[in-house]
Amino acid sequence: MELLSVIALSTIFAGISLGPLMMQFSLVFESNARVAEVNRLMEAALLVSRTITQSRAFASSFAFTGDENLTWTDETGQVHTILEQVTGSITTDASNDQTVVIRLEGKRIPGGATVRMLAYPLR
Amino acid sequence: MVVKSFSRGFSLAEILVAIPLVAVISMSLAYFGSIYSFSNSQTIGRFRCQIAVHNLLTLVQAASDTAALTVVSRHIQGGGTAGPLLTSSPAHPDGSSALTVSSSVSSVTGYGMTFGGSPAMPFHVAVTDETTGARSEIITYVTTH
Questions:
Q1: Which of A72, B105, B113, B127 could form a disulfide with B52 if both were Cys (CB 3.0 to 4.6 A apart)?
Q2: Is the ipTM of this structure higher than 0.90?
Q3: Which candidate from B26, B59, B96 shows the least CB-CB separation from A21?
Q4: Which residues of B touch A9 (CB under 8 A)?
Q5: Structural domain boundaries of chain A?
Q6: Which residues are within 8 A (CB) of A45 and not within 5 positions of it... i.e. 6 or more apart?
Q7: What pLDDT is attached to residue B27?
Q8: What is the pLDDT of residue B15?
Q9: pLDDT tens, position by position, A51-100
Q10: Contact A77, A68 (CB under 8 A)
């Protein structure tokens, strides 16, 4: 009887203490992955923004290929892969003084993450 | 050589001490985990604010003939120089929860500069993520204010 009480108590305490702990760890892992994903998208968007601004590249020189790669074709025709596992769009926004809207949607975490950054080509 | 035997069972007293100890350690770890998660959400909030500020400055740069405050106000709910950033605005980093913008042109005498003959004034733009309290602010100079 004593043994049964101890086992019951142990199970209850373990459930109370370890359950939230496991849940907390999963939340930490998930939020870490989200920070890394947003950072990855932000850096890529900044790179595209800088490329458009500094090299005066056209929005149309960027493409999202079928295997979810963001590529850039430079003036010599060479194709550069900027980011993997991403979809989105890079479009000129006529209603906002021809700014370029870079919208990237990452695919590495459940639910994805979106970053929208603007660029302005100095022509 | 002394060999200790671990084959005996635990006594009730040992278990009654060990269980609360495990519970306290677990709750401590959970507490630190929650702090870590909060720190991560603040990091994302800061990223969002930085992108929003960058985007607003890009819009100001693109609309070179329009006053900076006028450009920013087009993307603020209600059209003022401060308030929630419209989630539909291209300046919003992800279109999710609203960010708060505040913008101003400083008219303090002596702080103005001149670029190419045009008087330039300090232009402040700040974006705050109300959920996490993260904030990003940039001060630059504009000739159209």
A1: B127
A2: no
A3: B26
A4: 15, 19
A5: 2-119
A6: A102, A104, A115, A116, A117, B51
A7: 79
A8: 75
A9: 888 777 778 889 999 889 999 998 899 999 999 999 999 998 988 888 99
A10: no
